[in-house]
Structures are given as structure tokens and as C-alpha cells.
């Protein structure tokens, strides 16, 4: 990892700890995200300089999901271990990682299939992409929306001001 990415990754980690969507999760769960959040600049690579569009946002979400699903990151196992007992239900801790992989794999498949069709769907409904990006369905906050309206919102800026938009699977 280069020095610039380390600094940005650290900044993203600081920012995410102020995000209400992140803070609603139990503390033990939040701790499992540190490594993968700090890796975001390297995971997203050339997407960082891309303007925020639905296609680029979905592409960033897909990359992040692929990254956390990669067994080498160990994220799924750490996350499963950190889940409070009351969130597991009748499932055993041993089967939890494979169940989480299935669920997140399903989210990944859904995002990948959605990528091509969402722009067509918006066009058919006469909804401008820029308008849709400002809806609650996307979840951009005031800072991100302001940057979007100015034409200054890249994927890199988004993860610096509101990383949960990429990390959450809305």
C-alpha cells in the first residue's frame, strides 16, 4: 500500500466513525470494518477519480463486496465472530460465515445485474440520473449532494465524506 492510500484510508476510517449509519451497529461489529475501510482506496483503484454516477457507484459497491467476500481478507469470519448472540437466531456460529457469504453473494449478484438496467429504468420513467442520486434510495448526505450539484463528487471524495454509501448495500 502506498503512503497516499494509507493516509486516505485513515481519513476514511475517521469519517466513518461519525456516520450515524455506521454508529447504529454494535461496537464489536464496527471494529471488524477497520481493515477493510482503510483498504478502500486500493480496492477501488482507478474508480477513485471517476465522477459519481450510478454506474460508478454500483461498480464501487461491487468491488467492495468482492473484496470483503474474498477469504483472504478474513472479514466474513471476523464479522460472524463479532455478531452478538441475539442476532444469530437459531443458527450455529459455525454455519454463520457460510450463510453470510451466501447473503452477501446474493447482494453482489443483484448489484451486478442491476448495473446495466438501472439507467434504462430511469430513462423509461423520465428520471434524471442526477435527480435519482439525490434521493433517499441512494442515501447521499448534504455534503455529498452539494459536491454532486457542483459537479465535484468523485468516488474518492464520496468515500472521504460519506463512505457508508459505498459500504452499505441499500
How would you describe the overall organization of this protein?
By secondary structure, the chain is an all-alpha fold. It has one domain. Helices cover 65% and strands 0% of the residues. It is built from twelve helices and no strands. Helix 6 packs antiparallel against helix 8 and helix 7 crosses helix 8. The protein is globular, with a radius of gyration of 16 Å. 23% of the residues are buried.
Short description:
The chain contains 12 helices and no strands. It is an all-alpha fold and 170 residues long.
Strand residues, percent = under 5%
Task: Note poorly predicted spans.
Answer: none
Mean pLDDT score: 90
Helical segment count: 12
Notable features of this structure?
0% strand, single chain, 170 residues, 12 helices, mainly alpha
Task: Describe the protein's topology.
Elements: H1 3-16, H2 20-23, H3 27-32, H4 34-38, H5 40-44, H6 54-69, H7 75-82, H8 96-124, H9 129-133, H10 142-149, H11 155-161, H12 164-167
Amino acid at each position: 500500500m502506498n503512503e497516499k492510500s494509507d493516509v486516505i484510508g485513515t481519513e476514511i476510517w475517521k469519517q466513518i466513525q461519525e456516520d450515524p449509519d455506521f454508529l447504529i451497529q454494535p461496537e464489536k461489529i464496527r471494529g471488524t470494518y477497520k481493515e477493510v475501510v482503510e483498504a478502500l482506496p486500493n480496492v477501488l483503484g482507478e474508480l477513485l477519480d471517476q465522477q459519481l454516477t450510478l454506474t460508478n457507484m454500483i461498480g464501487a459497491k461491487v468491488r467492495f463486496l468482492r473484496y470483503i467476500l474474498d477469504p483472504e481478507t478474513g472479514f466474513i469470519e471476523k464479522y460472524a465472530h463479532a455478531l452478538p448472540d441475539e442476532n444469530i437466531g437459531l443458527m450455529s456460529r459455525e454455519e454463520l460465515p457460510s450463510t453470510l457469504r451466501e447473503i452477501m453473494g446474493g447482494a453482489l449478484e443483484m448489484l451486478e445485474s442491476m448495473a446495466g438496467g438501472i439507467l434504462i429504468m430511469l430513462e423509461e420513467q423520465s428520471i434524471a440520473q442526477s435527480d435519482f442520486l439525490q434521493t433517499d434510495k441512494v442515501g447521499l448526505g448534504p455534503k455529498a449532494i452539494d459536491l454532486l450539484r457542483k459537479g465535484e463528487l468523485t468516488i474518492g471524495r464520496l468515500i472521504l465524506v460519506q463512505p457508508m454509501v459505498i459500504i452499505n448495500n441499500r
